[in-house]
């Protein structure tokens, strides 16, 4: 793989590019501003700003923004997570200057006109209501709010409709002036690009010169409010759904914790995307009790979360819980054999390699790592870390996270 190229502008904007032979360029701004950065009275504002950033700048109307890249067949998109907001495009390389001009304009020069907000806010509220109608999705946010209760990491990304309807131009400007700053962002690019030409385009659009090319200091760690103590709990909510929806999980490891890699492997064996995942075999293939069962993990800079989700007939819920508990107990009591560990490593490395063939996801992934940690995604190094995981480390993680008394449970029934 071609090496990453990096630089920084005088305004603090960091740049990372990965040249390839593809004529399609994926590029954009990743901003260190997600729901975890919201103040107590701002829940939902990060996602709100993502929507209304497209509604006009000092020199473009909302329609101008829509048409700018679509006229040449390009895509313009955005999304918000717990830790960042991303604005990006997919464009033929000949139109890269157009994409950079548009992206820079909307990220740093949007004006958030109230008349556009008044229209868009109902679109956002419709998105919230459609999400509320999808219990298999809603339960993830509600579960995180239980595990990180009282902390911004527990904020629902979409927020609540009654609060969203009160946000104004001034609210959007206040949040974006606080966070949408060049020194709090990176620009990433992946495709058939000349790095020097890319730097000249970014210098022009940002009105500042490159101050350094090559290796640079890692960014300062994002400072979030201190986490509250974790209190496991069981919560039942009546959502009037046909199925019972269940989540079981625990706080887990931050991105800097060396145990994270062992959990990464363990989670994939337990409930990863493969049909051979142990929970899928136990609940679906052998018993036919569920359509979906999966486990997931997310690691943030200061904390992490691990969870299991399944949906089933209400009458089958207790049996599903028993089967899940049996699989967790097995990991705690019986270490993986050498063959099981080898197959698990081979499987997850294959999944990583295939995932990296999705160029859009790879671009977004290396941009995020560079934004938060100054990392340059290195698949070979990741494979080495996976190969170094031992059966004892996997069992130790299971014994730390899986005990019944440490688990939070959320049940929609």
From TrEMBL:
Residues 21-159 form the Peptidase M16 N-terminal domain. GO terms for biological process: proteolysis. Keywords: Hydrolase, Protease. SUPFAM superfamilies: LuxS/MPP-like metallohydrolase. The keyword Protein biosynthesis does not apply. It comes from the Bacteria. Residues 166-347 form the Peptidase M16 C-terminal domain. It holds the Pfam family Peptidase_M16_C. InterPro entries: Metalloenz_LuxS/M16 (IPR011249), MPP/UQCRC_Complex (IPR050361), Pept_M16_N (IPR011765), Peptidase_M16_C (IPR007863). Signal peptide: none annotated. GO terms for molecular function: metal ion binding; peptidase activity. Belongs to the peptidase M16 family. PANTHER family: METALLOPROTEASE (PTHR11851), MITOCHONDRIAL-PROCESSING PEPTIDASE SUBUNIT ALPHA (PTHR11851:SF49). This is Zinc protease. The lineage of its organism: Bacteria, Pseudomonadati, Bacteroidota, Bacteroidia, Bacteroidales.
